[in-house]
Structures are given as C-alpha cells and as structure tokens.
Prior knowledge:
Residues 1-24 form the signal peptide. 41% of the residues lie in helices and 19% in strands. It is of the alpha/beta class. It has two domains: 57-144 and 242-278, 3-Layer(aba) Sandwich (D-Maltodextrin-Binding Protein, domain 2), CATH 3.40.190.10; 147-231, 3-Layer(aba) Sandwich (D-Maltodextrin-Binding Protein, domain 2).
Amino acid sequence: MKKILTAVLVVSLAVLMMAGCKKADSSDSSAASQGGQESSQANSEATGTKKLEKGQKLIIGTNAEFPPFEYVKANGVIGEFDGVDMAIAKEIGERLGMEVEISNMDFNSLIPALDSDRIDCALAGMTITEERLLEADFSDPYYTAIQAIVVPASDETTQKVEDLAGKKVGVVTGYTGALTMKDATFDVTLEHYTKGVDGAADLRNGRIDALIIDKPVAETFLGDDNDLKIITDQKYFEDEKFGIAVKKGETEVVKQLNEVLKAMTEDGTIDKIILDYVGVVSGE
Length: 284
C-alpha cells in the first residue's frame, strides 16, 4: 500500500513539475518574443523613417569657430550665429517651414551628437570623406574647398607641402588638414588646436612655422594682415566637398535636404550666399 501511495505521489509531483516547466518556458518564450519585437522596432526606426516635419524645430549642430562659414557675432542670421552655413541653415528652415535652433559644440562632438539624436543634422564646413561616411550620411555637396598653407610673409622657402619637412605645423583637430597631415610621408611636427584662430595667433607669434586650414578660412583670418601669406598646393591637397551630415541611416532626412539644396542651387541662392560671405563662388 505504501509503495502504491509513494508511486502515485511521485507521478503527481512529476506531472506538476512538467506543467510548471512548460509554463515557465512559455513565459520565457513570450518575453523573448517581446524583446525581439522591441529590437525589431528599434532597428526599424534606425533605417531612415525619420522626417523633418513642418512646424517642428530643426536642431542643427555646428562649430562656430570656422569663419566665414560659421562664427559668432552680435547680430547673426540665426541669433548670435552667422556665416555661410548659418545662412544656408536659415534658408533650409524657411523652405521646410521649421524653426531652426543652432547647437554650438566642438567639431569632434558633432557626429556623436548625431548618433545620440541630440541634433538633426550638422552644418559645419564638414568635408565628405570616406572615413566620415562610415560614421554618418551626407547630403549632396554644396561647396568645393581646398586646403591652404599659411606662413609668415618673410618665408621664402615654403612653396609646397613637402617644404614643411622638419617644421612645426599647426592643424585644427578633426579638420581635413589635420587628417591629411597625419599621413604625411615626411617628418613634420603637428601642433593641434581646437580653434583655427588660436593657430593663426601662434603663427603670428612665431610659436609654429605654418598653419594648414581651408583657404577661405585662411583668407578670413588674414584680412589685411601683411605679416602672413597663403600658399596653395593643388598637387598635394585635392578639392574637398562640403556636405550636411546626418545620422547614419536617415535616408529620408538626406532626401529632404537634397531636395532643398537642389532648389537653392537652381535658383542661385547658394551662390549668392557664398558670394556674400566668401567673395567668390564655390570652387573659384
């Protein structure tokens, strides 16, 4: 009798344990399925479904240390911000029916800010490069630039980039000049700056021998200063294309920006803005 009861109890417990396991497995499977749905939704949102909506705020990141493209002044075209890119940003906002807000930050913080959705796009004289295309998407180009060498007016030895061998050269961290010079095949000491204007000041004071920066920016820094001069080396520095950076995968935003930029190019707005701030149209 005891054996029969014992056997019945063992069978009953086994049945209960199996039922419990099935319930737990079902619950775990449901949770996993739900987690998979959330992940899929997140991936879906990252594939380019975001759009710039009329009536909403358009947050544009920049680095306002790059005249004549972006800089700070008392009365800029957007609050305290002025320059080629800021005028383009204002026009884009007006054509999309959006309120533009500028978020000023270090140049190297712009792409991380896109990744974390703190800004909608970055308009900061940013050259479209293969390296950056791995981290962000870009609009069609709106400006063609080239790097320049800035040296003291008394320097008669520097005619091309290779003449900087053995010298101390200033570059701005994250800018194309810095990216290009780090791969130089000759010996050169690079002095890194976060602001081009600081590099120009050190050049005037003799702390560095030369400064590598975009030609229009170099011309702005020089102004009427006869103590410095600009040298171009088109054999070493290739033409660069500026574009508006957006978060990787935001294809709809890129499409919207391209449509506006195309219209601004066709009606002459882009050339007028560049002419107003740079003095010549893009690529000249």
